[in-house]
Amino acid sequence: MEGPLSFSSAHEMLHNPMEGTTMKQRVKSFSLALLAGLPLMGLSLAGTSHAADEAVFTAKQRAAIVQIVREALKNDPSILSDAIRSIQQQASSQQEAHVKAAVRANWQALSTAPSYAVRGNPQGQVTVVEFLDPRCTYCRHMAPVVDQFLARHPDVRLVEKVIPVLGDASLLDAQAIYAAAFQGQYDAMRRRLMEETAKPGMEHLRDVAKSLKLDVARFEKDMKGQAVMGLLTANLGQAQSVGVQGTPTFLFGQAAVAPGALGMEQMEQFLEAARKG
């Protein structure tokens, strides 16, 4: 492991034209530390070891080093863009690791749903979870893609989690979907509401309920009941636990979290990752 940076070695490395890419990489690392506001400890540009009393710079030395970095950035501005890109990549990697850990920690709840909300093969070897909002344009776009995906992969168990994230109309539709489920019409209600473009509202929902031969009085009561609200609250809590920020979002087993509308090829790539574990 390389030792901490000294003022003299930093100056030498930043001004040595023979160092080429190595110098640029080390300046980028140094810039990362400065941009992050970190103390310059444990960071090496020169690759030499120094005594512990040189691990922390004086204010004068630090100011001089900052000036050296500024000069280097003037000569090669790409150093800064590389540093920023590195920070972004590191943050993205950390976020991905955090999300995957959350998925593992909450997988039992995430992969569980009432039988009517499980599609494909109920005994499938691979579980895919979909968070969807019935009013979401992208979720509607994905509906036929998901149907095709399940038809092509009979080993997939799809768990649907309806979450109302787009306002009052979404909440009403989500309540209607689960209320219809209590009369055996979950899938029919979900498909109707996600295919139609009629103005949302209770009047329309009553019409749909009648067309599906539901007991409308019971349907309206169930929409407001604790059972339906409990399902929606649980779904929203699970979505929050794994950092879902929009719909649709897919969990391909514990291997991948995929937000947004996906193409068939993308879904199959994520599925392959889930099969490999």
UniProtKB/TrEMBL annotation:
<dbReference type="InterPro" id="IPR001853">
    <property type="entry name" value="DSBA-like_thioredoxin_dom"/>
</dbReference>
<dbReference type="InterPro" id="IPR036249">
    <property type="entry name" value="Thioredoxin-like_sf"/>
</dbReference>
<feature type="domain" description="Thioredoxin">
    <location>
        <begin position="107"/>
        <end position="276"/>
    </location>
</feature>
<dbReference type="GO" id="GO:0016491">
    <property type="term" value="F:oxidoreductase activity"/>
</dbReference>
<dbReference type="Pfam" id="PF01323">
    <property type="entry name" value="DSBA"/>
</dbReference>
<dbReference type="InterPro" id="IPR041205">
    <property type="entry name" value="ScsC_N"/>
</dbReference>
<dbReference type="InterPro" id="IPR013766">
    <property type="entry name" value="Thioredoxin_domain"/>
</dbReference>
<dbReference type="Pfam" id="PF18312">
    <property type="entry name" value="ScsC_N"/>
</dbReference>
<dbReference type="InterPro" id="IPR051470">
    <property type="entry name" value="Thiol:disulfide_interchange"/>
</dbReference>
<protein>
    <submittedName>
        <fullName>Outer membrane protein</fullName>
    </submittedName>
</protein>
